[in-house]
Automatic annotation (TrEMBL):
Gene3D superfamilies: Aldolase class I. GO terms for molecular function: alpha-galactosidase activity. Residues 34-257 form the Glycoside-hydrolase family GH114 TIM-barrel domain. Pfam families: Glyco_hydro_114 (PF03537). Its EC number is 3.2.1.22. It catalyses: Hydrolysis of terminal, non-reducing alpha-D-galactose residues in alpha-D-galactosides, including galactose oligosaccharides, galactomannans and galactolipids. Keywords: Hydrolase, Signal. Residues 1-17 form the signal peptide. This is alpha-galactosidase.
Length: 270
């Protein structure tokens, strides 16, 4: 078991968005510490938990390392009206001018990151959320859906998504918050170089055989979640534990991350 780490963000680089990644000191979670992933609702973490991920609208868990989840590259379903009313121009549209619908996420609208103006507008909202996370006591940020460009019918590009990531990562570091890479294991080195990510939240990397692409870049600072709705989930989870359980934080959870009061709740850790 390692001690919590004070990490110096030492990369100094100018990315295409014109953002300079400066030296910042942020505190990271305890590697291989027990953690929980609570996006379906906040509840008292299992005994011994030291790290917890919660939605930005949830209260922090006392005396733990709390990571704040934000949907950074597409909308949350309950926030579609906010974006349509206030920043409709940043919502992605297809060639006929209709909102682009990703079949995998029919209730969420991807952000159009293709212009600097759009990226600045999106970052303005996201950075306000990041400030709220900092004020509320979170120590890290998990910005979800970095991979929208892979699901956009070529309407978006990797470079533009990384440019938005750099804007919010710089803001998070200025608020003394660590920030995670979420998604895109195969681009981990490039994503870290472009945005300055500090750690990764790796969903289903054992099931997708891509964990080494994360660990090669982020070392011990990996939070791995496998899910019970896969074929042979216990085998996947046990294989993950056997391969990395003495080095990394690994859990098995129900897909919708419900609370213990729900019948589908599932939590295991190794």
């Amino acid at each position: 078991m390692h001690l919590p780490a004070l990490v110096l963000i030492a990369t100094i680089a100018t990315v295409k968005a014109g953002v300079t990644l400066e030296k910042r000191a942020v505190t990271l979670f305890t590697p291989n510490g027990k953690f929980d992933y609570q996006l379906g609702g906040a509840y008292t973490p299992p005994s011994g938990t030291v790290t917890v991920v919660r939605d930005r609208t949830a209260a922090v868990a006392p005396n733990l390392y709390n990571i704040c989840y934000i949907n950074a590259f597409q909308t949350q379903p309950n926030e579609n009206d906010f974006w349509k009313t206030n920043h409709d121009e940043v919502l992605l549209r297809n060639s006929t001018g209709q909102y682009f619908i990703d079949p995998g996420w029919p209730d969420e609208i991807q952000f159009n990151t293709t212009t600097a103006q759009n990226r600045n507008t999106i970052a303005g909202v996201l950075n306000g959320w990041i400030d709220e996370c900092a004020t509320n006591g979170f120590k890290g940020i998990e910005p979800d859906n970095l991979d929208t460009f892979t699901r956009s019918d070529n309407l978006l590009t990797k470079e533009n998504n990384f440019a938005l990531a750099a804007l919010i990562a710089t803001h998070a570091h200025n608020a003394n918050l660590a920030i995670a890479q979420k998604n895109l294991a195969e681009f981990s080195s490039e994503a870290k170089a472009a945005a300055g990510f500090d750690f990764t939240v790796a969903e289903e990397c054992q099931a997708e055989t891509e964990c080494e692409e994360y660990t090669a870049v982020y070392g011990d600072f990996v939070l791995e979640i496998e899910y019970t709705d896969r074929d042979d989930p216990e085998e996947i989870f046990q294989d993950a534990c056997a391969a990395r359980g003495t080095e990394y934080s690994i859990i098995l959870r129900d897909r919708f991350l419900v609370t213990p009061s729900e019948p589908d709740y599932h939590y295991e850790e190794c």
